[in-house]
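Researcher: Re-running this chain for the archive, since the previous output was lost when a drive failed. Same request as before.
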Amino acid sequence: MFFKILMWLFAITAYFSTQTNCFEMNMTDYYKMPSLYDFDDYDRCLTEFNNLSTYCFVRADVIPKNDSVSWRVITEISKYNKHHFNHRHLYFGLCVKWCEDALSQFQENGTDELFAGILTNNTKVNVYLNLFSSEATNRDHYNILLNKCLNLRLQKNYGLKAESVIEYCNTNNKTIEEDSWNLSFYIVVYVLICLVILSSSYDFYLKHKCNDKVLTDRDHYKAPQNSLIKKICVTFSVARNWYRLTQEPTGKIGRDLRFLDCFKFFCMFLVVFAHTNWVIFEGPIGNPYEEEQLLHTLSGTLLISGGLITLTFFVISGLLLTINWLALTKVKSDLSLPEYIEAFTKFNIFRYIRLTVPYGFVLLLSGVYFENSGGPMWRHILEREQLSCRKNWWTNLLYVNNYVNNNERCMLQGWYLAADTHSFILSLVLLMLANKWPKVRNILFGVVLAIFYVIPGIVAYVKKYSPIFIATPQAQRDSFIENEEFANFYAPFHMNFGCYFCGVVAALVYDKISSQQLKLAKYKSFQILWYLLIPVGVLWMFSAHPLIQHYYKVPPRFWGSVYAAMQRNSWSFGVAFMIVGMSARLGWILRRFACLPIFRILGRLTYGVLLIHVFMARIVLGTIREPIYFSTGTMFAYIFFNLTASYLASLILALLVELPTSSLLKLLR
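Model: Regenerated structure tokens:
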């Protein structure tokens, strides 16, 4: 029976494979469009001339021209917006001196007809212009000149014109002046380094002062000190925190759930994969058709459906919250109202401090101005983030950044932390209500699950959104600015709470199985269902295939909303089911693999990687001087480098900030 079901699943997957809409790109027509990126030699422009040299990054929108072949191709290619960039919107890197030389060859009045206007009606571009408000003088000086220059190229090669506006300009003599934000970061780093050196030295001194030959080095660094003062003094000890990072899980719950570290690592790998590609889309690409063609394939369906992976973290968070709450209620189940208030306050304060201290450090780093060691898009990719963080840091620290100032987000990935925080608070309230009135627990949880299960469908129906959030190439290129579906359909807490609460229910089921010592592994039907989750999960990602690849078939509004409700919540239910099964020691070789010691470290570093990986990707992509050639090999090279660099940075963050903070919080309890 089991193998028959597997055969049917593979047959369905094969059907989807054969039904892929293999879009055929007409490359002859494709090359009739202007390139998305046209950059002058950045380094030569800023070094060739002894006097002041200026290089400007310019945004342009092609003006419609119905009798132009190039414009017709732009319209035809760009209409496949799920897979293609908006080829009307162009990036130019222009050397002012070379533009002046090119225009000087015309008669004095001959260049007036080249001017097509300043770009003012593009709201996405205006967000950048507002952030780079200090560039107003450069825009006044060079907007008209550079518009003529780029139109000279467009008209000569494609018979088109474009409106344009300068985002920013770089010169060969600009230096970064250290301000209060930069100085604050340097002071924090200096204090952390001093604390680590002093604490590590003191811990080393205590080890030798003890002079106990029975204790090994590891035993000393694992053993707690015998006084509060000493415990505080060794909080920042690198050796002690390293052993905390690598220590084996303790207790029955720790051993049962140690496979979660593997889950967290592989989910974080896929998150880094997706976000590195997003930053690549923000950068200059010489062959965008490669990315566009990739998204038309079966692999493209998987890439677009990959947003489901993030939901796994919500399930794990809900699970861990509930386990901690159940541990408290087992000590004392009958809590008074003041005790409920005290528990609610402590849970939230300790969580806020534990998450926010490393979060705040990375946020501070994200707002630091660096010398432009990159190329023409360094400021577009990196400084936009710096300016957003300096302006909207408070939305991140208050965890409201998934609702407030959506167009000027600092650390875009922070939407997850905001949604997770709101879900944490509501779940804790529901757990307390269920503990206070256990007779209504099942009704309460059932109603909550039903409400938040259907909310995504209601939002999709009312707002007329696509049943699945599609991160289009242009949306990623614009860093999701002015993307209504991301702001209202993907990032809000109410769209993801159902997934979080699946983790809460999974913890309750695990607790019951564990307390009653039920042996789920002996039930063959349960084993079959559990093993089927793997192929069903892959197939579930392909279920979005008709919505992604069939361009002109708009699903009925009602059934589209039904799918919107089912897609993310059913995935989370499957993840919760898998966690319960694996905690009951199902999985055979899969569970053994997931429990390998290496994942103990990699899993515990995932929070730091979540915080730092986009910054690392921006650093790398910001150094690009000219459009890169995109290929699968290039993509994986960037992903591998970003993953490695992010884990190394996360290790430093854990040893210097995250683990010391956690140690201090334990002392306060």
